[in-house]
Amino acid sequence: MIIRSLTLALVTATAIMPAVGHAEERWSIATSSTGSGPYIIGSAIAETMNASQDMLDVSAQTSGGYNDNLNLVAQGQVNAGLTLLSELGDAWRGTGKFEALPGAKEAFAPLRRMFPVTTATFQCVVRADSGIKSFADLKGKKLNINVPATATQAINRNLIAAFQMSVDDFQIMEIATSGSYDAVGNSVVDATCNGQPLPSGSIQQLAASAAVNVLPIPDEVFDRINEAYHGTMLRTTIAANTYPGQTEEVMTFAYPEVLFVSADADEEQVYTATKAYWEGKRPTNPAFKQITIENATLDVDPPLHPGTERYLREKGLIK
What we know:
InterPro entries: TRAP_TAXI. This protein is of the alpha/beta class. It has helices spanning 37-51, 66-74, 85-93, 104-107, 151-162, 177-185, 201-209, 219-228, 267-279, 306-314; strands spanning 25-30, 56-61, 80-84, 111-127, 142-144, 171-173, 191-196, 212-214, 234-238, 250-262.
């Protein structure tokens, strides 16, 4: 994903946030393009929030994607946005891919966390008949790490480093997620590592024609990659027989997608949205299942918004 220019993020926001005290205030969540995964997720969040409160009229708003959402929220052009928790922290700190962008830390200083909503589970998939049982077995083989400038490729590169290996140890392929599983099925690549909901429909479709293995991520490797991502990764397990051919439990990790707002977002509105989401009927999409309210208490950047913090205190989750 190409990072939008920060020029607009450095000027005073001209959009005016909704006023407090009127029923059904409009409350927008920046997502991505219509029909995309983030748009579907944002729509599900909005539906849950709308069903259990009458202060806010919440809706998903199309955008240019995660990087665009950071700008839109920082400038006050939307009420909330979706992005990866790791990238939200990087934007706020001015680290990672934002380190080389002049003024990034100042531009994104107003960003505040609400709570994680979904996870993408990192799944390194090979054909079961390949004989590949571990990530080390991939040395010298064709490994797909996704296209450049994506969060997925960045995670793959950090994962390789966490295994104390180098990209030179593999025949690196750069195929988008949409084509990666066909590439495994047709033996164009030996493995592809992608963040997907659990279970992944794409992997299920692949496994229906060619049984698969998912490669485990050992504890020490997880610790290294979690450190690289400032503690934002979650340890998770793929149950045995989640996919045809995957007969054993697999340890891996997941990375959360988070809802975030600006520091000057109205506290009552953020509190209402938080309470409505966690006390309403949760979305049924599998991507939501691995996140609980406890995940909102992670000690990571940026700080929680006071509205969400107030709800977590009421629930006895933070002091």
